[in-house]
Design the sequence.
């Protein structure tokens, strides 16, 4: 009798232990999760289209209640298009690690094709999670071949050799009783991007003229800027490059200036992970020659200035938000009192359920305004901001909060009005 009692007591204890303290598993039992709750975080998505096409999940508006969080990061490609890195992150399914799928989008891709690619990629990525739910037994997968690509030659030669060009131009005018004016702008880009080399060429022209008739003052603004940059990929962490950039600007009292810089950069993370995080350090050394419209405050009409710069950049995109920080310092080597330090940061962080903080700040310590003219400024130049004024610092920033509450589900679509 005592043995039966001991056996019964032991069995009851084991059953109680299993019920009250369930074993830790690396998977979620299908009976514990019927429908996936998904939160989509990123740019480029048409959420109405996603809700219409993906009806086997629930879209929620709070990442803290989601089973799967989808994070999209856009990166430009060498063709002028984009590559969207779509990361799938789950707090619910411990047996499925984070993974990333890519969506290449060609330049001028139609909205329909773009959304079709986005939708298919999200469906493919959700399959491992959907398989862990009980509702997966109620669905049958169906694949349809949209076009037969097996007969196409996938080794077509590229007659442009990865070069992509674009030209943009614009112009306008305005006429009032007391003033009239015109403006025009022009942009040219020529880029080549491969795994080993990146070449960027850029030309920008902007001219504005305004005639204040009653004041007898004509405001003129001209800005011409260009750069040509070649960057070589030395390894997964190291890069080197050369940059040449000329400029002409009435605002900065530069009749013509040109600088040539050589640079070396190290990324502490592999560049293949740049869609998730970057921590890079770069150093450049070069020479700048300047010709001024008016003599500068040093009574020179031209300057020859060797210079160097250091760049520190960090960014990360995570389920809790994204942060980007950069620090830049430059200095003229023949006059160490002429230097410039700048700090910039952008934050977007989820503080709590439904609450997000956005913050950006830019601070610059300016001690290299070698272009400042020795002449005093006229009242018209100051009011019209037609020329850069002396300053030792610039500071700008903004802060914002977003709080969302109410129903977490948002599957319903209503496009009326």
Sequence:
């Amino acid at each position: 009798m005592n043995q039966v009692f001991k056996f019964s007591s032991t069995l009851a204890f084991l059953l109680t232990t299993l019920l009250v303290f369930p074993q830790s598993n690396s998977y979620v039992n299908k009976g514990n999760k019927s429908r996936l709750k998904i939160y989509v975080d990123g740019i480029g998505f048409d959420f109405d289209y996603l809700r219409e096409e993906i009806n086997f999940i629930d879209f929620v508006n709070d990442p803290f209640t989601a089973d799967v969080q989808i994070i999209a990061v856009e990166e430009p490609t060498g063709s002028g298009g984009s590559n969207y890195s779509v990361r799938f992150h789950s707090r619910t399914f411990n047996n499925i690690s984070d993974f990333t799928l890519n969506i290449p989008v060609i330049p001028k891709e139609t909205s329909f094709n773009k959304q079709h690619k986005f939708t298919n990629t999200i469906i493919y990525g959700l399959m491992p999670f959907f398989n862990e739910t009980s509702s997966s037994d109620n669905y049958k997968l169906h694949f349809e071949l949209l076009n037969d690509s097996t007969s196409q030659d996938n080794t077509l030669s590229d007659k442009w050799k990865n070069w992509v060009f674009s030209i943009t131009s614009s112009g306008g005018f305005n006429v009032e009783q007391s003033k009239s004016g015109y403006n025009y702008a022009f942009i040219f880009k020529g880029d080549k991007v491969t795994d080993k080399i990146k070449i960027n060429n850029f030309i920008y022209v902007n001219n504005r003229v305004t005639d204040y008739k009653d004041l007898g003052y004509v405001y003129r603004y001209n800005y011409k800027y260009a750069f040509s940059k070649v960057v070589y990929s030395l390894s997964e962490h190291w890069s080197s490059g050369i940059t040449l950039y000329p400029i002409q600007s009435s605002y900065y009292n530069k009749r013509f200036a040109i600088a040539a810089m050589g640079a070396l950069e190290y990324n502490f993370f592999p560049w293949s992970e740049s869609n998730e995080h970057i921590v890079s350090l770069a150093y450049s050394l070069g020479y700048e020659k300047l010709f001024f419209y008016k003599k500068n405050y040093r009574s020179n009409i031209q300057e020859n200035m060797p210079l160097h710069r250091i760049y520190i950049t960090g960014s990360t995109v995570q389920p809790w938000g994204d942060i980007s920080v950069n620090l830049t310092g430059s200095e003229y080597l023949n006059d160490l009192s002429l230097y410039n330090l700048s700090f910039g940061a952008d934050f977007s962080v989820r503080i709590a359920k439904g609450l997000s903080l956005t913050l950006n700040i830019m601070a610059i310590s300016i001690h290299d305004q070698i272009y400042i003219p020795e002449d005093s400024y006229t009242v018209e130049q100051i009011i019209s901001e037609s020329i850069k004024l002396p300053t030792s610092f610039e500071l700008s920033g903004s802060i914002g909060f977003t709080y969302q509450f109410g129903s977490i589900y948002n599957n319903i679509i209503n496009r009326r009005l």
Notes: Residues 1-31, 150-155 have pLDDT under 50 and may be disordered.
